[in-house]
Amino acid sequence: MSTGDLRSDAGGTGIGNLDMKLEVVVVPVTDVDRAKEFYGRLGWRLDRTPPGVVQYTPHGSGCSVQFGPDLTSAAPGSANTYLVVSDLDAVRNALVSAGVKVGDIFHLTPDGPADGPDPERRSYFSRATLRDPDGNTWLLQEITTRLPGRVEAGPTSFASTADLASGLRRAAEAHGEHEKRIGQEDANWPDWYAAYLVSEQTGAEPPS
């Protein structure tokens, strides 16, 4: 069977529509108990697993982290993974308060990384780094508005009340600019807010 046959097979759905979910990333560690202490301090949920497997899930994430003595032959400290957040300042402050060492916030420029958050607070640009005891790297990346096509249109959600509140504050600020443009108060603000929040998550054109 050719790759062309595969694309048109799978029960007529097409291979691009097959339902596959990334649910677990294996992190190589040397000391399971030490790793458990670290990932528990991040506030992640400890899941029930078979013997020999430890699994933690970040709040609001559909993907979990696993580690154990026989799960991978990768060198401890070799993992390099992203953690997406909607408010990098708030997340970093909470982690530091919990005793987690987090690097300073920086942002990307054409000339390389620069200190502090992105001046325009653009999505994808502001970052900070934390590492587990083995040196596995977690890059905190602030994303508030997705690039088009990155999230399927349909269900949208917020991982926490803090995420929703942050989104509402951004919507309120954008709606204020909208009212300045139209020169009057917009009584239909609930629909406008809703459209704005969904557009952030799906990458669709925001309301004007």
Description:
The protein is an alpha+beta fold. Helices cover 30% and strands 19% of the residues. It is built from five helices and nine strands; from the N terminus they run αβαββββαββββαα. The chain has helices at residues 3-8, 32-41, 88-97, 161-182, 189-202, and strands at residues 24-26, 45-47, 54-57, 64-67, 80-85, 106-109, 112-115, 126-131, 137-142. The protein has a five-stranded mixed beta sheet. Strand 6 (106-109) and strand 7 form a beta hairpin. It is globular.
Estimate percent helicity.
25-40%
Backbone shape: globular
Order of the strands making up the biggest sheet:
5-9-8-6-7
Q: Which structural class is indicated by helix and strand composition?
A: alpha+beta
Span of the ends, CA to CA: 49 Å
Number of helices: 5
Strand portion = 15-25%
What's the alpha carbon Rg, rounded to whole Å? 21 Å
- Helix-strand topology string: HEHEEEEHEEEEHH
**Main β sheet profile:** 5 strands, mixed
Mean pLDDT: 87
Total E-strand runs? 9
Low-confidence stretches: 5-10
Quick take:
It contains five helices and nine strands. With 208 residues, the chain is an alpha+beta fold. The strands form two sheets. A five-stranded mixed β-sheet has the order 5-9-8-6-7. Strands 1-4-3-2 form a four-stranded mixed β-sheet, with helices on one face.
Question: What keywords describe this structure?
Answer:
alpha+beta, 208 residues, 5 helices
SSE topology:
Layout: H1 3-8, E1 24-26, H2 32-41, E2 45-47, E3 54-57, E4 64-67, E5 80-85, H3 88-97, E6 106-109, E7 112-115, E8 126-131, E9 137-142, H4 161-182, H5 189-202
Parallel strand pairs: 1-4, 5-9
Antiparallel strand pairs: 2-3, 3-4, 6-7, 6-8, 8-9
Helix pairs in contact: 4-5
